[in-house]
Amino acid sequence: MLDKQIHIQNKIIGKNTPCFIAAEIGINHNGDMNLAKEMILAAKDAGADGVKFQNYYTEDFILDKNLMYEYISKGKKIVETQYEMFKRYELSSSQLKELKRYCDEIGIIFFSTPTSERGIKDLQEIDTPLFKNGSDFLVNIELIEQFAKTKTPLVISTGMATLAEIDDAVRAFEKAGGDELVILHCISSYPASAKDVNLKKIPALESTFNYPIGFSDHTDGIVASLGAVALGACFIEKHFTTDKNLAGPDQHFSSDPKELKELVEAVRILEKSLGTSKITPTQEEEYGRENFRLSCVAKKDLKKGHTLKREDIAFSRPANGLAPKFIQNLIGKSLNNSLSVSEPILFSHIA
Fold first, then answer.
1. Domain boundary residue among 253, 274, 295?
2. Which of 274, 298, 318 is the last residue of a domain?
3. Residue 335 carries which DSSP code?
4. Strands (E), the chain
5. What CATH number does residue 23 fall under?
6. Coil, helix or strand for 206?
7. Of 70, 127, 171, 183, which has the most beta carbons under 10 Å away?
8. Does residue 240 sit in the same domain as residue 338?
9. pLDDT tens, residue by residue, 262-271
10. Are residues 204 and 146 in the same domain?
């Protein structure tokens, strides 16, 4: 894969750059603008690079108002129509503008998931620097083409998808003129179980598509996200709330501020730990190479002219003599000067 990078305001998304960490507020704001801003600030304080919302029009994807949905909210099972639920969390264009302005003020990147050309235009009008296409809309090729025509970088999630469906979406994006794309591995279960996460799909996507690869994490905890970064993900999206006990379908499996901060800090440590693939000692190890490695030394006092035998030679610290691998070059050779016990043996000591 080429090291393709995408510039979003003051951030760079791609290989060999800090992983972009997005707090997916989604619909957790419950239609409350004060709560939405509280969540934005909490995500910023936790170290997130961006916050993502959803700006949909319910009628874009639900025409049958009798479709039911069952979820857990505040520890209880809730059953209601999908239409009622989604309608309750819609954000107007003026609300989007207010949220974008607030993000700009505190210095965190705002982006969102629209579900129609109208939603895309709402985001364009407020200069949104990044768009997101959800897993459920991966097969909406017309929408992906509309995203591409804006020339705005796009993130696509691939939950529930086959490789062929992902390829269809990527080809459609490219054919329509798009060239800045991030592909997220995703499991569309809420929450996703460890056995279903299949993080090995990340290097598989990386070897297939010439775009930055990330991970939309629906698991509990931070382990899956860390594994994703270790496997090459350069973008992590994690559902986020200020309180798991708030009402709503996504609150209970979302990360709270403490968990998000732990994730951000752990990712930054992990990135340092990943380092380089070049196999060579570090600067810190150079001291150890000189002081902790072994060398060939005299096991006892040896006189000049003595013919070295195996029992005359020991391996001891520090590494200021010949390395142990040279012992066969020493056996049978005559010393041209005397050696004291533990004195390192050099080629200059033998005839």
1. 274
2. 274
3. B
4. 5-8, 11-14, 20-26, 50-55, 68-73, 76-81, 109-114, 131-133, 154-157, 181-186, 213-217, 235-239, 295-298, 313-316
5. 3.20.20.70
6. helix
7. 183
8. no
9. 999 999 999 9
10. yes
Residue 327 in domain = yes
Q: Are residues 290 and 238 in the same domain?
A: no
Report which of 136, 123, 106, 107 is spatially closest to residue 53, judged by C-alpha positions.
Answer: 123
> Using an 8 Å Cβ cutoff, are 200 and 231 in contact?
yes
pLDDT 10s digits, 85-144: 999 999 999 999 999 999 999 999 999 999 999 999 999 999 999 999 999 999 999 999
Q: Let me know whether 300 and 213 are in one domain.
A: no
Tell me the β-bridge partners of 110.
Answer: 51
Would you say 13 and 182 are in contact if contact means Cβ atoms under 8 Å apart? Answer: yes
Look at residue 3 in the predicted model and tell me its pLDDT. 75
Q: Find out whether 340 and 313 touch, Cβ atoms under 8 Å.
A: no
| pTM higher than 0.85 | yes
Neighbour-count burial of 41, counting CB atoms closer than 10 A to its CB (0-12 exposed, 13-18 middle, 19+ buried): middle
Please, is 224 exposed, middle or buried when counting C-beta atoms within 10 Å of its C-beta (0-12, 13-18, 19+)?
buried
Q: Which domain holds residue 306?
A: 283-349
Q: Give the DSSP H/E element, type plus range, for residue 284.
A: helix 283-291
Report the pLDDT value the prediction gives residue 2, as an integer from 0 to 100. Answer: 56
* Per-residue CA distances from 288 to 281, 291, 293, 294, 323 (Å): 10, 5, 7, 10, 14
- Give the gyration radius of the chain's Cα atoms: 30
Residue type, 41: L
Please report whether residue 199 resides in a domain.
yes
- Cβ contacts of 155 within 8 Å, gap of 6 or more: 111, 130, 131, 132, 133, 181, 182, 183, 184, 214, 235, 237
How far CA 15 is from CA of 40, 202, 214, in Å, comes to 27, 13, 11
Low-confidence ranges of the chain (pLDDT < 50): 1
CA dihedral 62, 66, 71, 73 (to 10 degrees): 100
Structural domains in the chain (count): 2
* Sequence letter at residue 92: S
**What DSSP character marks residue 146?**
H
Own/partner contacts of 272-276, CB < 8 Å, gap of 24 or more, are 274/229, 274/230
CATH of the domain at 328: 3.90.1210.10
